[in-house]
């Protein structure tokens, strides 16, 4: 019997889809809500319709949600009805528009690129109405919308979005001035975008952006001060625009004009820029792709991912300016755990090397180098992180053999930036670079710097300049003779391997390992490729010193208590105390990243070996989830989603996931194995949305892939419950 011809799939009104795409769950749900609203209001006058909707939302939470989301969807898909539907929404809503704000954020983070033209236009219209109505939380939606404006992109859609959001900020200036974070985030965004809008046809937009930034910087400078040193970097890029030049002069020579509390440019340059600002200049899609490369892709297998990223985001002349945003993000936001650093996952320096070697403009290349070294210039070991300066030294170290020109140009830049960055602060910049190199040695990122600074592959003039600038780091080390012989042998092996491979940033077989790993204890040459982590690594003591100083005293004390004891029960008790501290109202979320790094390092043994007990019984399952990390899961399971602490703890878990990607399938296991989590499997969806990946499908696929690679037996145990959910 002949199969019936396939029916053409009806196209939804919200998202763009093809015949091959499965129907989007969110779109289906929103369409059902529209059906509910239409069933309640068909054939009724406006007043009767409003009464019917009001009566329905009073029946319960579910009916309230359905009506609000139905009206919200009609605003997006029916421009002619938008004004009336928004008015109805404001009348029937019972939660301060919270359900609408949450859904807008979800669409912005997960579906914005798939929105059809009308819903995209309507979404911006709706955000403008929410701002005009002074809805609490609308500033958060504006900040998410700002994140969708891509740097290095002058396509019509992107320019429209940049101008539309700017118009909202200009129209509602009094409202904007009430939120310090929105002021700082919008100034950071538009200062960066001004650089992309220099073409003659874009000058009217650029002038609006300049006027907005000048206005905010002059009226609310102390709010902008929280941006930190990257504010100076962005201002330098636009300092030749006349209005900006006047501001720049005041910044350098007359700081009190900007604010009586502002002491001068050094105050800005010594303040580290929060990862919030560095992350806001990457769209959610760019961020997801970069995080995927730095947490899932094996070194040597990155070429197709880099090629895709290049085609998507770096293929045009104007997109060259995006490289700085990417490098600042990689240095300041992507801070892998020690376990990821010691694995065969694509390292940060290799991605930065690729971004530098594929740069096609001299201006972009110079700005990219500044972005890479920016945290070096005023580095303070007590306030800054080793992770911000590590990529630059490793790019130079690993490029010496395959790309000596890259190493030479970076070393040359490092020397010349000291007198030229800002001559009045030359001594401070020199001290910052010296502090960076010292800290790199102290933390053993590189064992010694002489092989890099005094390498025969560098030309004589550069080596002379390095010896003059950094004599302390140029004297060769004096280890035992046999080590020198081994190093000679390892260099020989390096050259042999790299004869076959042209580069280290994109070739198919990775060919690098640390100096100390290049030969084994007996002097025999090892194969030059990454090997799986040996179980012996378990015995390495946890090193949390790079992050301890970023914690407040109480939190530091608790973390050190966990470090000092190996008793699981005691660790669980202290872990509960840490969770309680996180849930306190005055918890400083700025220390989340450092805390996550500490916990990932302290509990690294928890993520090694098999999770599932050999013999599966109720007792063995319950015992397997009595580990310190599971305390976070347990607290989330017992909390209501509308509890303010729930989102904070979920953010903490998402931060931990960035440091330790195995946390995803460990959460799935806990939700299946623990009695306390019975029926709470949907918590994983909330977790997925809180991560940088941002959606359930991507997160689940990556976690299941990681589980498959680590423990096939566990994958078989989890699959039935995941499928049924």
Automatic annotation (TrEMBL):
Entry-linked Pfam families: HEAT_Ints3_C (PF24566), Ints3_N (PF10189)
Nucleus recorded as keyword: yes
Location in or out of the cell: Cytoplasm; Nucleus
UniProt-listed InterPro entries: HEAT_Ints3_C, INTS3, INTS3_N
Keyword Cytoplasm annotated: yes
Residues of the Integrator complex subunit 3 N-terminal domain: 62-468
Keywords associated with the record: Cytoplasm, Nucleus
Cleaved signal peptide residues: none
All copies of domain Ints3-like C-terminal, residue ranges: 559-724
Similarity field: Belongs to the Integrator subunit 3 family.
PANTHER family for this protein: INTEGRATOR COMPLEX SUBUNIT 3
Protein's UniProt name: Integrator complex subunit 3
């Amino acid at each position: 019997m002949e199969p019936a011809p396939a029916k053409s799939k009806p196209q939804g009104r919200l998202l763009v889809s093809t015949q091959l795409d499965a129907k989007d769950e969110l779109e289906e749900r929103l369409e059902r809500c529209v059906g509910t609203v239409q069933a309640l209001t068909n054939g009724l006058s406006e007043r009767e319709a409003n009464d019917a909707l009001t009566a329905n939302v009073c029946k319960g939470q579910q009916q309230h949600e359905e009506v609000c989301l139905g009206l919200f969807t009609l605003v997006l898909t029916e421009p002619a009805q938008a004004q009336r539907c928004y008015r109805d929404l404001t009348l029937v809503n019972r939660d301060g528009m919270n359900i609408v704000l949450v859904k807008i954020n979800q669409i912005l983070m997960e579906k914005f690129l798939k929105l059809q033209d009308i819903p995209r236009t309507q979404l911006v219209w709706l955000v403008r109405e929410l701002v005009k109505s002074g809805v609490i939380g609308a500033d958060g939606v504006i900040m998410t919308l700002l994140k969708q404006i891509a740097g290095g992109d002058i396509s019509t859609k992107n320019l429209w979005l940049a101008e539309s959001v700017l118009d909202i900020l200009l129209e509602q200036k009094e409202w904007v001035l009430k939120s310090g974070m929105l002021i700082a985030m919008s100034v950071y965004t538009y200062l960066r975008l001004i650089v992309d809008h220099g073409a003659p046809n874009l000058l009217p937009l650029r002038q609006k952006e300049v006027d907005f930034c000048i206005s905010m910087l002059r009226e609310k400078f102390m709010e902008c001060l929280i941006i930190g040193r990257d504010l100076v970097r962005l201002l330098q890029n636009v300092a030749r625009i006349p209005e900006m030049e006047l501001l720049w002069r005041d910044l350098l020579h007359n700081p009190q004009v900007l604010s009586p509390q502002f002491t001068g440019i050094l105050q800005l340059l010594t303040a580290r820029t929060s990862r919030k600002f560095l992350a806001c200049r990457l769209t959610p899609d760019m961020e997801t792709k970069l995080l995927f490369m730095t947490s899932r892709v094996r070194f040597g297998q990155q070429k197709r991912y880099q090629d895709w990223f290049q085609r998507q985001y770096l293929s045009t002349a104007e997109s060259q300016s995006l490289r700085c945003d990417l490098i600042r993000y990689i240095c300041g936001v992507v801070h892998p755990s020690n376990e990821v650093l010691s694995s065969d996952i694509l390292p940060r320096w290799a991605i930065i090397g690729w971004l530098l070697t594929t740069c096609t403009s001299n201006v972009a290349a110079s700005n990219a180098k500044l972005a890479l070294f920016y945290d070096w210039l005023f580095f303070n070991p007590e306030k800054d992180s080793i992770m911000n300066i590590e990529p630059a030294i490793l790019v130079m170290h690993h490029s010496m053999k395959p790309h000596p020109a890259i190493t030479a140009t970076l070393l040359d830049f490092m020397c010349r930036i000291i007198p030229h960055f800002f001559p009045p602060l030359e001594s401070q910049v020199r001290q910052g670079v010296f502090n960076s190199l010292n800290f790199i040695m102290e933390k053993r990122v590189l064992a010694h710097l002489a092989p890099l600074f005094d390498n025969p592959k560098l030309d004589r003039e550069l080596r002379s300049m390095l010896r003059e600038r950094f004599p302390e780091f140029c004297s060769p080390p004096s280890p035992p003779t046999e080590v020198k012989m081994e190093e000679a042998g390892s260099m020989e092996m390096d050259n042999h391997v790299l004869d076959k491979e042209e580069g280290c940033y994109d070739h198919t077989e990775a060919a690098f390992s640390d100096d100390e790993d290049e030969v084994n204890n007996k002097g025999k040459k090892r194969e030059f490729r990454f090997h799986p982590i040996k179980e012996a690594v378990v015995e390495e003591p946890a090193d949390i010193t790079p992050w301890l100083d970023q914690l407040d005293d109480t939190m530091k004390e608790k973390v050190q208590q966990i470090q000092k004891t190996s008793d699981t029960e005691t660790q669980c008790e202290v872990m509960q105390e840490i969770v309680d501290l996180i849930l306190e109202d005055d918890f400083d979320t700025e220390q989340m990243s450092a805390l996550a790094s500490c916990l990932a390092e302290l509990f690294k043994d928890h993520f090694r070996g098999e999770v599932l007990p050999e013999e599966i019984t109720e007792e063995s399952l319950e015992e397997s989830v009595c580990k310190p990390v599971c305390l976070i899961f347990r607290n989330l399971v017992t909390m209501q989603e509308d509890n303010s602490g729930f989102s904070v703890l979920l953010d903490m878990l998402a931060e931990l996931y960035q440091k330790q990607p195995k946390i995803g399938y460990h959460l799935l296991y806990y939700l299946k194995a623990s009695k306390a989590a019975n029926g709470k499997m949907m918590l994983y969806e909330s977790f997925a949305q809180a991560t940088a990946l941002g959606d359930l499908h991507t997160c689940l696929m990556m976690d299941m892939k990681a589980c498959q690679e680590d423990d096939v037996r566990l994958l078989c145990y989890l699959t039935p419950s995941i499928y049924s959910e």
